[in-house]
Amino acid sequence: MKKWHIAITGTFTHLLLGTVYAWSFFQTPITEFTGWNNAQAAWAFSLSIFMLGVTAAWAGNKMSVYGPRKLAMIGGALYALGYLISGFALANQSLVLLYFGFGIIGGMGLGLAYVTPVATVSAWFTQKQGLATGMVVMGFGFGALVMSKFLAPVFLQLSDGNLSTTFYYVGAVMIVLIPILASFLQLPKTDKRTEAIQEKISIVNYIKTKPFITVWLIFMINIVAGMIFISFQSPLLQDLLKTKMPAGTDFSDAGIVASLAAAGATLIAISSIFNGLGRFVWGSVSDKIGRMPTFRILLALQAVIFGLLIFVREPVVFSVLVCIVLLCYGGGFGVLPSLTKDMYGSKLMSSLYGALLTAWGVGGIIGPQIVAFMKDNYADKAGLYAFMVGGGLLVVGFLISLGYTGQKTNVQ
Predict the structure, then answer these.
(1) Nearest-angstrom CA–CA distance, 371 and 327
(2) What pLDDT, on a 0 to 100 scale, did the predictor assign at position 409?
(3) pLDDT tens readout for residues 76-111
(4) What distance in Å separates the CA atoms of residue 227 and residue 332, rounded to the nearest whole number?
(5) What radius of gyration do the chain's Cα atoms show?
(6) Closest to 336 measured CA to CA, from 395, 294, 275, 396
(7) pLDDT at residue 201, rounded to an integer
C-alpha cells in the first residue's frame, strides 16, 4: 500500500505543478494589459519550460544524493516564488522581471519538483511501469484544468480582474500545498544512497549514443507539437470564433471579450483532461505493445491531424483535433519514463530520464515561438503556417523513430 500512497502523493504534486500549462489563459490578457507583443509574452512560458528541462536533468542526476523529498520541496517553493515575482512584474509592467520570475525561478522550481515524483514512483513499481508513472504524470496534464477553471477564475474574481494580484494568490497557494505533498516522497531502501556509486558513471557516455539521441529527438518533436497548442490554444480558438461573428462586431466590447475568454478557458480545461488521460492511457498501452511502437503511433497520428488542421475553419472541429493532439502529447510523457528504464535499468533511470527531459526544455522554446512569430508577422494565417511547420516536424520525427533499434543500451 505504501507505494500506491506515494504514487497518489506524486500525482497531486504534479497536478499543482501542471498549472503552468494554463499559460494560454493568460497570454492574451497579459498582452492587452501591458502592450507587449505575442512573442515577448510567450518567452516567459518558453523560458519556464526550458529551465524545467535543464534543471530536471540536474535533479535527476542528484536525486540519490539529496533525496526526492528535499528536491521536490525546494522546487515547489521556487515555483511559488516565481508566481509571486511575476505578480510584481505585471504590476510594474516589467518584462525582464516576468522572465526572471515565471521563466527562470519558476522554471527551475518545476524542474526540481517534476522529475522526483516520476523517478520515485518508478523505483517503487517493478511491474506495470507505464501504468504507474503514467498515473503520476497524468496529474501534470490535469494542471491546466485546475488553473483555467478553478484557481484563475476564482482569484480574478476576488481581485476584480487584477492580473498581478491573481498571480500573488496563485503563488500563496503553491507555497503552502506543494511542499506539504512533496514531503511524503521517499525512495525504497534499495534505491537510496547505496546506489549513488552506480550513478557516478558518466552519463555523457550514454548521451552521445545513437539510441539516446534518437529518443531525445523524437520526444522533443512530440513536445513541439503539443506546445503549439498549450501556449496558444485559447488565442487560436478565439481567432476562429471571431471569423464566425457578424461583420462590424466590436471585439473591444467587454461582453464579447469575456465570452471569447470563457470559450478559450473551456478548451484549455477540456484539452488538459485529454493531456492528462493521454499520459495514463498511452503509458498503459506501451506496457502491451512496446514503448517505441507507441511513440510511432503518437507521431503518425499527430502528423495526420496537423494536416487536417490546415483546412479546418470550424471552432468545434478545431477543438476536437486540439484535444487529440494533447492526448498524444501527454502520451509522450507517459511512455518516456518506462522507455528510459527499459534502455538503462533502474540504477541509471533518474539520471538519464532527467537528461532526456532537456528535450522538453528545447521543445518548450520552439513550439510557442513558432506560433508567436506567426501571429506577430502573419496574423491572418498564423495557424495555417504553424500547423504546416508542426506537421512537417512530426513526419521527420516518425522517420527518425524507424531508426530506433530497441536494444538495451550498455556503455563500458
Answers:
(1) 20
(2) 57
(3) 999 999 999 999 999 999 999 999 999 999 999 999
(4) 13
(5) 20
(6) 294
(7) 55
Reference 327, options 267, 273, 398, 401; nearest CA is: 273
Grid look-up 516522497 returns 185
Give 287-355 as a 3 state SS string.
HHHCHHHHHHHHHHHHHHHHHHHCCCCCHHHHHHHHHHHHHHHHHHHHHHHHHHHHHHCHHHHHHHHHH
Going by C-alpha positions, the residue among 10, 63, 52 that lies closest to residue 351 is 63
The pLDDT score that the predictor gives to residue 191 is 47
3-state DSSP call for residue 117?
Answer: helix
Mean pLDDT of 316-324: 98
C-alpha–C-alpha distance, residues 405 and 412, integer Å: 19
The owner of cell 543500451 is 409
Tell me which of 252 and 266 has the higher pLDDT.
Answer: 266
Tell me what pLDDT residue 126 has: 74
Domain at 233, CATH number:
1.20.1250.20
Return the ∠ at Cα 186 (arms to 295 and 194), rounded to 5°: 90
Alpha carbon distance 260, 244 (integer Å): 12
Position 410 in a domain? no
pLDDT per position as a tens digit, 354-367 = 999 999 999 999 99
Look at residue 412 and tell me if it is in a domain: no
**Cβ proximity of 98 and 46 under 8 Å:** no
Burial category of 201 from C-beta neighbours within 10 Å (exposed 0-12, middle 13-18, buried 19 and up): middle
Q: How many domains does the chain have?
A: 1
pTM score, two decimals?
A: 0.87
pLDDT digits (tens, 9 = 90+) for 137-161: 889 999 999 999 999 999 999 999 9
- Which of 146, 111, 138 has the alpha carbon at shortest distance from 25? 146
Contacts of 368 (CB under 8 A, 6+ apart): 42, 45, 46, 227, 228, 230, 231, 232
Rounded Cα–Cα distance for residues 6 and 152 (Å): 28
In 3D space, the residue among 204, 170, 196 whose CA is nearest the CA of residue 57 turns out to be 204
- Which residue range(s) make up the domain with 136? 2-401
